[in-house]
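Q: Could you fold this chain for me?
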Amino acid sequence: MSEPAVENISEPLSLEEWTSVLCDRDMPIFSSTAFSIDAILRDDKKGAMDLANVILHDPNLTAKLLKMSNSSYYNVSRQKMVTVSRAIIVLGSELIRELTLACSFFEAILPAANRERANQEIARAVHAAVQAKSLALSVNDPSPEEVFIAALLHQIGNVAFWCFSGKQGERLLSLINKENCTLEEAEKQVLGFKLTDLAVSLCKTWKLGGLIEDSVKKGKQVNPRVKLVSLGYVITDALKEGHQSKQYAECVDKISVLTGKSKQSVEALMVQNTDTAVNIAKQFGAVSASRLINKEAFQAEEEESRVPEEDKKLVQIQILQEITGIMSGKIDINLLFEMVMEGIQRGLGIDRALFALLAQDKKSMKEKLSLGWRKEFYDQKIIFSISQSPLNLFCLGLKTPQGLMIKGVSDGVLFTDADKRVIGQHDCFLMPVCSSEQPIGLIYADRSFSSQPFTDDEFNGFKHFVQQANIGLAMYRMQGKK
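A: Sure. Below is the predicted structure, expressed as C-alpha coordinates.
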Protein backbone atom coordinates (compact mmCIF):
# COMPACT_ATOMS: atom_id res chain seq x y z
CA MET A 1 0.00 0.00 0.00
CA SER A 2 1.45 3.39 -0.94
CA GLU A 3 1.58 6.23 1.52
CA PRO A 4 -0.89 9.08 1.09
CA ALA A 5 0.24 11.98 -1.05
CA VAL A 6 1.16 15.18 0.73
CA GLU A 7 -0.34 18.42 -0.48
CA ASN A 8 2.42 20.50 -2.01
CA ILE A 9 1.94 23.99 -0.62
CA SER A 10 4.64 26.55 -1.43
CA GLU A 11 8.14 25.18 -1.83
CA PRO A 12 11.02 26.84 0.05
CA LEU A 13 13.58 28.69 -2.03
CA SER A 14 16.72 28.75 0.12
CA LEU A 15 18.67 26.62 2.60
CA GLU A 16 17.23 28.61 5.50
CA GLU A 17 13.67 28.24 4.21
CA TRP A 18 14.08 24.50 3.60
CA THR A 19 15.42 24.04 7.15
CA SER A 20 12.57 26.03 8.65
CA VAL A 21 9.82 24.32 6.64
CA LEU A 22 11.11 20.81 7.34
CA CYS A 23 11.30 21.54 11.06
CA ASP A 24 8.00 23.36 11.47
CA ARG A 25 5.67 22.09 8.76
CA ASP A 26 6.81 18.77 7.36
CA MET A 27 8.58 17.06 10.28
CA PRO A 28 7.19 18.58 13.50
CA ILE A 29 7.05 15.16 15.22
CA PHE A 30 10.77 14.64 14.82
CA SER A 31 11.52 18.26 15.72
CA SER A 32 9.61 17.99 18.98
CA THR A 33 11.24 14.68 19.92
CA ALA A 34 14.75 15.86 19.06
CA PHE A 35 14.35 19.08 21.08
CA SER A 36 12.91 17.21 24.07
CA ILE A 37 15.71 14.64 24.08
CA ASP A 38 18.28 17.44 23.88
CA ALA A 39 16.62 19.19 26.86
CA ILE A 40 16.77 15.98 28.90
CA LEU A 41 20.42 15.34 28.06
CA ARG A 42 21.39 18.88 29.04
CA ASP A 43 19.67 18.68 32.43
CA ASP A 44 21.52 16.64 35.06
CA LYS A 45 18.31 16.37 37.09
CA LYS A 46 16.47 14.51 34.33
CA GLY A 47 16.75 10.80 33.68
CA ALA A 48 15.06 7.67 32.36
CA MET A 49 11.54 8.65 33.43
CA ASP A 50 11.78 11.96 31.57
CA LEU A 51 12.84 10.06 28.45
CA ALA A 52 9.85 7.74 28.89
CA ASN A 53 7.56 10.77 29.05
CA VAL A 54 8.82 12.01 25.68
CA ILE A 55 8.05 8.63 24.11
CA LEU A 56 4.64 8.18 25.73
CA HIS A 57 3.39 11.54 24.48
CA ASP A 58 3.02 9.90 21.04
CA PRO A 59 1.03 6.62 20.95
CA ASN A 60 2.33 5.72 17.47
CA LEU A 61 5.92 6.32 18.55
CA THR A 62 5.31 4.25 21.70
CA ALA A 63 3.94 1.29 19.74
CA LYS A 64 6.75 1.40 17.18
CA LEU A 65 9.45 1.73 19.85
CA LEU A 66 8.10 -1.25 21.83
CA LYS A 67 7.96 -3.31 18.64
CA MET A 68 11.61 -2.49 17.89
CA SER A 69 12.63 -3.05 21.53
CA ASN A 70 11.19 -6.55 21.44
CA SER A 71 12.86 -7.47 18.14
CA SER A 72 15.79 -9.91 18.20
CA TYR A 73 18.02 -7.23 16.65
CA TYR A 74 17.89 -5.15 19.84
CA ASN A 75 16.53 -7.45 22.53
CA VAL A 76 19.18 -10.17 22.74
CA SER A 77 17.92 -11.33 26.14
CA ARG A 78 14.43 -11.92 24.65
CA GLN A 79 12.81 -10.43 27.77
CA LYS A 80 9.25 -9.42 26.93
CA MET A 81 8.76 -5.67 27.33
CA VAL A 82 5.22 -4.30 27.46
CA THR A 83 5.97 -0.84 28.88
CA VAL A 84 8.39 1.89 27.90
CA SER A 85 9.60 1.99 31.49
CA ARG A 86 10.54 -1.70 31.37
CA ALA A 87 12.24 -1.24 27.99
CA ILE A 88 14.45 1.48 29.47
CA ILE A 89 15.35 -0.74 32.44
CA VAL A 90 16.20 -3.77 30.27
CA LEU A 91 17.88 -2.08 27.31
CA GLY A 92 19.22 1.04 29.01
CA SER A 93 18.37 4.70 28.47
CA GLU A 94 21.20 5.21 25.94
CA LEU A 95 19.87 2.56 23.56
CA ILE A 96 16.26 3.69 24.03
CA ARG A 97 17.30 7.27 23.29
CA GLU A 98 18.85 6.19 19.99
CA LEU A 99 15.84 4.02 19.14
CA THR A 100 13.50 6.90 19.95
CA LEU A 101 15.27 9.18 17.49
CA ALA A 102 15.18 6.46 14.82
CA CYS A 103 11.48 5.61 15.33
CA SER A 104 10.53 9.28 15.49
CA PHE A 105 12.44 9.93 12.27
CA PHE A 106 10.45 7.27 10.45
CA GLU A 107 7.21 8.52 12.01
CA ALA A 108 7.98 11.90 10.45
CA ILE A 109 8.98 10.83 6.94
CA LEU A 110 6.79 7.83 6.12
CA PRO A 111 3.49 9.73 5.78
CA ALA A 112 5.14 11.69 2.95
CA ALA A 113 4.33 11.02 -0.69
CA ASN A 114 5.57 7.64 -1.89
CA ARG A 115 8.34 8.84 -4.16
CA GLU A 116 10.78 6.42 -5.72
CA ARG A 117 13.79 8.62 -5.03
CA ALA A 118 12.78 9.05 -1.39
CA ASN A 119 12.54 5.28 -0.96
CA GLN A 120 15.96 4.86 -2.56
CA GLU A 121 17.46 7.27 -0.01
CA ILE A 122 15.67 5.58 2.91
CA ALA A 123 16.79 2.14 1.72
CA ARG A 124 20.41 3.27 1.41
CA ALA A 125 20.34 4.88 4.87
CA VAL A 126 18.90 1.82 6.63
CA HIS A 127 21.25 -0.56 4.81
CA ALA A 128 24.29 1.58 5.62
CA ALA A 129 23.22 1.88 9.26
CA VAL A 130 23.04 -1.90 9.70
CA GLN A 131 26.41 -2.39 7.98
CA ALA A 132 27.98 0.38 10.11
CA LYS A 133 26.66 -1.12 13.35
CA SER A 134 28.09 -4.51 12.34
CA LEU A 135 31.48 -2.88 11.79
CA ALA A 136 31.23 -1.16 15.16
CA LEU A 137 30.60 -4.51 16.85
CA SER A 138 33.55 -6.06 15.00
CA VAL A 139 35.99 -3.42 16.25
CA ASN A 140 34.55 -3.33 19.80
CA ASP A 141 33.17 0.19 19.48
CA PRO A 142 31.82 1.40 22.87
CA SER A 143 28.38 2.27 21.45
CA PRO A 144 27.35 0.43 18.26
CA GLU A 145 23.82 1.85 18.54
CA GLU A 146 25.21 5.38 18.33
CA VAL A 147 27.01 4.38 15.13
CA PHE A 148 23.74 2.92 13.81
CA ILE A 149 21.74 6.11 14.39
CA ALA A 150 24.55 8.32 13.07
CA ALA A 151 24.65 6.31 9.84
CA LEU A 152 20.85 6.27 9.61
CA LEU A 153 20.71 10.06 9.87
CA HIS A 154 23.93 10.74 7.96
CA GLN A 155 21.95 11.48 4.78
CA ILE A 156 19.16 13.26 6.62
CA GLY A 157 19.29 16.17 4.18
CA ASN A 158 18.79 13.88 1.18
CA VAL A 159 16.06 11.80 2.84
CA ALA A 160 14.10 14.82 4.11
CA PHE A 161 14.36 16.67 0.79
CA TRP A 162 13.22 13.76 -1.37
CA CYS A 163 10.37 12.91 0.99
CA PHE A 164 8.91 16.41 0.87
CA SER A 165 10.13 17.96 -2.38
CA GLY A 166 7.78 18.75 -5.23
CA LYS A 167 8.63 20.61 -8.43
CA GLN A 168 12.20 21.21 -7.29
CA GLY A 169 12.73 17.47 -6.92
CA GLU A 170 11.31 16.90 -10.39
CA ARG A 171 13.67 19.50 -11.88
CA LEU A 172 16.62 17.88 -10.09
CA LEU A 173 15.80 14.46 -11.51
CA SER A 174 15.29 15.93 -14.96
CA LEU A 175 18.73 17.54 -14.91
CA ILE A 176 20.40 14.34 -13.70
CA ASN A 177 18.61 12.05 -16.17
CA LYS A 178 18.43 14.19 -19.29
CA GLU A 179 21.33 16.59 -19.19
CA ASN A 180 24.00 14.26 -17.81
CA CYS A 181 24.47 16.52 -14.81
CA THR A 182 26.05 15.30 -11.55
CA LEU A 183 23.86 15.31 -8.47
CA GLU A 184 25.82 18.10 -6.78
CA GLU A 185 25.75 20.24 -9.94
CA ALA A 186 22.01 19.75 -10.23
CA GLU A 187 21.50 20.59 -6.55
CA LYS A 188 23.45 23.82 -6.86
CA GLN A 189 21.62 24.77 -10.05
CA VAL A 190 18.09 24.07 -8.78
CA LEU A 191 18.39 24.76 -5.04
CA GLY A 192 21.38 27.04 -4.75
CA PHE A 193 22.91 24.71 -2.14
CA LYS A 194 23.88 21.05 -1.75
CA LEU A 195 21.81 18.56 0.19
CA THR A 196 24.83 17.91 2.39
CA ASP A 197 24.47 21.56 3.46
CA LEU A 198 20.85 20.85 4.36
CA ALA A 199 21.98 17.91 6.52
CA VAL A 200 24.38 20.14 8.44
CA SER A 201 21.72 22.81 8.90
CA LEU A 202 19.10 20.32 10.15
CA CYS A 203 21.56 18.76 12.61
CA LYS A 204 22.31 22.16 14.10
CA THR A 205 18.65 23.18 14.27
CA TRP A 206 17.54 19.91 15.84
CA LYS A 207 20.60 19.90 18.15
CA LEU A 208 21.34 16.29 17.25
CA GLY A 209 24.98 16.71 18.24
CA GLY A 210 27.47 13.94 18.99
CA LEU A 211 28.43 11.43 16.35
CA ILE A 212 25.42 12.36 14.18
CA GLU A 213 26.62 15.93 13.78
CA ASP A 214 30.27 14.87 13.43
CA SER A 215 29.37 12.53 10.57
CA VAL A 216 27.68 15.24 8.48
CA LYS A 217 30.26 17.97 9.11
CA LYS A 218 32.46 19.08 6.27
CA GLY A 219 36.21 19.15 6.33
CA LYS A 220 38.69 16.94 8.11
CA GLN A 221 37.20 14.85 10.90
CA VAL A 222 38.84 14.37 14.29
CA ASN A 223 36.37 11.73 15.46
CA PRO A 224 37.69 8.33 14.28
CA ARG A 225 34.25 6.76 14.71
CA VAL A 226 32.99 8.79 11.76
CA LYS A 227 34.95 6.34 9.62
CA LEU A 228 32.58 3.55 10.67
CA VAL A 229 29.61 5.61 9.50
CA SER A 230 31.26 6.35 6.16
CA LEU A 231 32.23 2.72 5.66
CA GLY A 232 28.60 1.71 6.13
CA TYR A 233 27.80 3.66 2.96
CA VAL A 234 30.91 2.35 1.19
CA ILE A 235 29.68 -1.22 1.77
CA THR A 236 26.14 -0.40 0.65
CA ASP A 237 27.32 1.24 -2.56
CA ALA A 238 29.81 -1.56 -3.27
CA LEU A 239 27.10 -4.21 -2.93
CA LYS A 240 24.95 -2.24 -5.34
CA GLU A 241 27.80 -2.21 -7.89
CA GLY A 242 27.98 -6.01 -7.72
CA HIS A 243 30.46 -8.72 -6.68
CA GLN A 244 32.45 -8.45 -9.88
CA SER A 245 33.13 -4.73 -9.60
CA LYS A 246 36.42 -3.13 -8.62
CA GLN A 247 34.60 -1.10 -5.98
CA TYR A 248 33.35 -4.28 -4.29
CA ALA A 249 36.80 -5.90 -4.21
CA GLU A 250 38.39 -2.77 -2.74
CA CYS A 251 35.63 -2.56 -0.14
CA VAL A 252 36.11 -6.17 1.00
CA ASP A 253 39.87 -5.62 1.28
CA LYS A 254 39.35 -2.48 3.35
CA ILE A 255 36.87 -4.13 5.76
CA SER A 256 39.09 -7.22 6.09
CA VAL A 257 42.06 -5.08 7.17
CA LEU A 258 39.94 -3.05 9.60
CA THR A 259 38.25 -5.99 11.33
CA GLY A 260 40.96 -8.64 11.03
CA LYS A 261 38.46 -11.04 9.46
CA SER A 262 39.08 -13.12 6.34
CA LYS A 263 37.66 -11.87 3.06
CA GLN A 264 35.24 -14.80 2.98
CA SER A 265 33.95 -13.91 6.45
CA VAL A 266 33.60 -10.26 5.47
CA GLU A 267 31.58 -11.13 2.37
CA ALA A 268 29.32 -13.51 4.30
CA LEU A 269 28.69 -10.88 6.98
CA MET A 270 27.89 -8.22 4.38
CA VAL A 271 25.23 -10.49 2.87
CA GLN A 272 23.83 -11.35 6.29
CA ASN A 273 23.64 -7.66 7.17
CA THR A 274 21.76 -6.97 3.95
CA ASP A 275 19.06 -9.44 4.94
CA THR A 276 18.95 -7.89 8.41
CA ALA A 277 18.55 -4.42 6.89
CA VAL A 278 15.49 -5.62 4.96
CA ASN A 279 13.85 -6.73 8.20
CA ILE A 280 14.84 -3.56 10.07
CA ALA A 281 13.36 -1.36 7.33
CA LYS A 282 10.10 -3.31 7.49
CA GLN A 283 9.99 -3.02 11.29
CA PHE A 284 10.37 0.74 10.98
CA GLY A 285 7.44 0.69 8.55
CA ALA A 286 9.54 1.51 5.47
CA VAL A 287 8.13 -1.37 3.42
CA SER A 288 8.67 0.16 -0.02
CA ALA A 289 12.26 1.02 0.87
CA SER A 290 12.92 -2.50 2.20
CA ARG A 291 12.18 -3.92 -1.24
CA LEU A 292 14.96 -1.79 -2.70
CA ILE A 293 17.61 -3.09 -0.26
CA ASN A 294 17.40 -6.65 -1.51
CA LYS A 295 14.49 -7.61 -3.74
CA GLU A 296 15.29 -11.32 -3.48
CA ALA A 297 15.18 -11.26 0.31
CA PHE A 298 11.85 -9.47 0.44
CA GLN A 299 9.12 -12.06 0.93
CA ALA A 300 6.83 -10.77 3.66
CA GLU A 301 3.69 -8.91 2.75
CA GLU A 302 3.29 -5.24 3.56
CA GLU A 303 0.72 -6.06 6.21
CA GLU A 304 3.37 -7.74 8.39
CA SER A 305 5.38 -4.56 8.87
CA ARG A 306 2.57 -2.46 10.20
CA VAL A 307 2.47 -1.75 13.89
CA PRO A 308 -0.76 -3.53 14.95
CA GLU A 309 -3.37 -1.62 16.88
CA GLU A 310 -2.97 -2.43 20.54
CA ASP A 311 -5.45 -4.69 22.30
CA LYS A 312 -6.26 -2.34 25.17
CA LYS A 313 -7.54 -5.06 27.48
CA LEU A 314 -4.36 -7.04 26.96
CA VAL A 315 -2.24 -3.93 27.56
CA GLN A 316 -4.09 -3.31 30.84
CA ILE A 317 -3.47 -6.88 32.01
CA GLN A 318 0.20 -6.83 31.01
CA ILE A 319 0.92 -3.49 32.67
CA LEU A 320 -0.95 -4.49 35.83
CA GLN A 321 1.26 -7.58 35.94
CA GLU A 322 4.33 -5.32 35.64
CA ILE A 323 3.02 -3.18 38.50
CA THR A 324 2.46 -6.27 40.65
CA GLY A 325 6.06 -7.27 39.94
CA ILE A 326 7.32 -3.87 41.07
CA MET A 327 5.40 -4.10 44.34
CA SER A 328 6.72 -7.57 45.12
CA GLY A 329 10.14 -6.16 46.06
CA LYS A 330 11.68 -2.84 47.03
CA ILE A 331 9.45 -0.28 45.34
CA ASP A 332 10.79 2.34 42.95
CA ILE A 333 8.01 4.88 43.46
CA ASN A 334 8.83 6.89 40.33
CA LEU A 335 8.76 3.76 38.19
CA LEU A 336 5.48 2.70 39.81
CA PHE A 337 3.71 5.96 38.91
CA GLU A 338 5.26 5.92 35.45
CA MET A 339 3.73 2.50 34.80
CA VAL A 340 0.38 3.50 36.30
CA MET A 341 0.23 6.50 33.98
CA GLU A 342 1.30 4.41 31.01
CA GLY A 343 -1.39 1.86 31.86
CA ILE A 344 -4.05 4.58 32.00
CA GLN A 345 -2.99 6.16 28.72
CA ARG A 346 -2.33 3.07 26.61
CA GLY A 347 -4.64 0.60 28.33
CA LEU A 348 -7.68 2.89 28.26
CA GLY A 349 -6.92 4.86 25.09
CA ILE A 350 -6.59 8.18 26.93
CA ASP A 351 -5.48 11.33 25.09
CA ARG A 352 -4.16 13.21 28.12
CA ALA A 353 -3.29 11.96 31.60
CA LEU A 354 -1.78 13.90 34.47
CA PHE A 355 -0.58 13.20 38.00
CA ALA A 356 -0.57 16.44 40.01
CA LEU A 357 0.62 17.00 43.59
CA LEU A 358 -1.13 19.18 46.13
CA ALA A 359 0.70 22.39 47.05
CA GLN A 360 1.50 23.10 50.70
CA ASP A 361 -1.14 25.82 50.89
CA LYS A 362 -3.70 23.33 49.46
CA LYS A 363 -4.91 25.99 47.02
CA SER A 364 -3.39 24.49 43.89
CA MET A 365 -1.87 21.35 42.39
CA LYS A 366 1.22 21.16 40.20
CA GLU A 367 2.07 18.58 37.57
CA LYS A 368 4.37 15.80 38.66
CA LEU A 369 3.95 13.60 35.59
CA SER A 370 1.94 14.12 32.40
CA LEU A 371 1.32 12.23 29.17
CA GLY A 372 -0.17 13.47 25.92
CA TRP A 373 -0.27 17.20 26.73
CA ARG A 374 0.67 19.50 23.86
CA LYS A 375 2.95 22.04 25.46
CA GLU A 376 4.79 24.98 24.02
CA PHE A 377 7.86 24.10 26.09
CA TYR A 378 8.95 20.66 27.30
CA ASP A 379 9.59 21.91 30.86
CA GLN A 380 6.27 23.72 31.11
CA LYS A 381 4.33 22.52 34.16
CA ILE A 382 0.53 22.37 34.35
CA ILE A 383 -0.98 23.96 37.46
CA PHE A 384 -4.59 23.50 38.63
CA SER A 385 -6.38 25.83 41.04
CA ILE A 386 -8.48 24.28 43.79
CA SER A 387 -11.67 26.27 44.20
CA GLN A 388 -14.19 25.66 46.98
CA SER A 389 -16.40 28.62 46.13
CA PRO A 390 -17.48 28.04 43.47
CA LEU A 391 -16.68 24.33 43.81
CA ASN A 392 -14.56 23.10 40.91
CA LEU A 393 -13.87 19.57 39.67
CA PHE A 394 -10.38 19.40 41.23
CA CYS A 395 -11.62 20.33 44.70
CA LEU A 396 -14.43 17.79 44.34
CA GLY A 397 -12.00 15.20 42.98
CA LEU A 398 -9.78 15.49 46.06
CA LYS A 399 -12.83 14.92 48.27
CA THR A 400 -14.04 11.84 46.37
CA PRO A 401 -11.86 8.82 47.19
CA GLN A 402 -13.95 6.51 44.98
CA GLY A 403 -13.16 8.61 41.91
CA LEU A 404 -15.24 10.81 39.58
CA MET A 405 -16.42 10.53 35.99
CA ILE A 406 -17.19 14.10 34.93
CA LYS A 407 -19.29 15.00 31.89
CA GLY A 408 -18.02 18.10 30.14
CA VAL A 409 -21.51 19.31 29.21
CA SER A 410 -23.84 18.22 32.01
CA ASP A 411 -21.23 18.90 34.72
CA GLY A 412 -20.15 22.18 33.17
CA VAL A 413 -20.76 24.09 36.42
CA LEU A 414 -17.66 22.37 37.87
CA PHE A 415 -15.38 23.99 35.31
CA THR A 416 -14.31 27.49 36.34
CA ASP A 417 -12.99 29.94 33.79
CA ALA A 418 -9.47 29.21 35.07
CA ASP A 419 -10.04 25.47 34.59
CA LYS A 420 -11.23 26.00 31.03
CA ARG A 421 -8.08 27.97 30.21
CA VAL A 422 -5.86 25.16 31.52
CA ILE A 423 -7.69 21.99 30.40
CA GLY A 424 -10.73 23.03 28.38
CA GLN A 425 -14.08 21.43 29.21
CA HIS A 426 -14.07 17.72 28.39
CA ASP A 427 -15.41 14.46 29.75
CA CYS A 428 -12.79 13.28 32.24
CA PHE A 429 -11.84 10.96 35.07
CA LEU A 430 -10.41 12.13 38.41
CA MET A 431 -9.31 10.22 41.49
CA PRO A 432 -7.19 11.27 44.47
CA VAL A 433 -3.77 9.84 45.29
CA CYS A 434 -3.59 9.36 49.04
CA SER A 435 -1.01 8.85 51.76
CA SER A 436 -2.29 7.68 55.15
CA GLU A 437 -5.81 8.23 53.78
CA GLN A 438 -5.05 11.91 53.16
CA PRO A 439 -5.07 13.20 49.56
CA ILE A 440 -1.67 14.42 48.38
CA GLY A 441 -2.72 14.91 44.76
CA LEU A 442 -4.83 13.36 42.05
CA ILE A 443 -4.73 11.72 38.65
CA TYR A 444 -6.74 13.30 35.83
CA ALA A 445 -7.49 11.80 32.40
CA ASP A 446 -9.48 12.94 29.35
CA ARG A 447 -9.95 12.49 25.61
CA SER A 448 -9.64 16.12 24.62
CA PHE A 449 -8.40 15.38 21.08
CA SER A 450 -10.45 12.36 20.00
CA SER A 451 -13.61 13.41 21.92
CA GLN A 452 -14.65 9.75 22.24
CA PRO A 453 -17.15 9.13 25.07
CA PHE A 454 -16.03 7.18 28.12
CA THR A 455 -17.63 3.92 29.28
CA ASP A 456 -18.26 2.62 32.78
CA ASP A 457 -15.84 -0.21 32.06
CA GLU A 458 -13.09 2.32 31.24
CA PHE A 459 -13.87 4.25 34.42
CA ASN A 460 -13.48 1.04 36.43
CA GLY A 461 -10.15 0.43 34.69
CA PHE A 462 -9.02 3.96 35.55
CA LYS A 463 -9.96 3.50 39.20
CA HIS A 464 -8.13 0.18 39.34
CA PHE A 465 -4.87 1.75 38.10
CA VAL A 466 -5.13 4.63 40.61
CA GLN A 467 -5.87 2.13 43.39
CA GLN A 468 -2.67 0.32 42.45
CA ALA A 469 -0.81 3.64 42.77
CA ASN A 470 -2.30 4.18 46.24
CA ILE A 471 -1.49 0.64 47.35
CA GLY A 472 2.06 0.97 46.04
CA LEU A 473 2.50 4.34 47.75
CA ALA A 474 1.34 2.87 51.08
CA MET A 475 3.75 -0.06 50.72
CA TYR A 476 6.57 2.35 49.79
CA ARG A 477 5.92 4.37 52.96
CA MET A 478 5.99 1.18 55.03
CA GLN A 479 9.28 0.09 53.47
CA GLY A 480 10.76 3.49 54.34
CA LYS A 481 9.85 3.07 58.01
CA LYS A 482 11.64 -0.29 58.37
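A (continued): The chain is about 60% helix and 10% strand.
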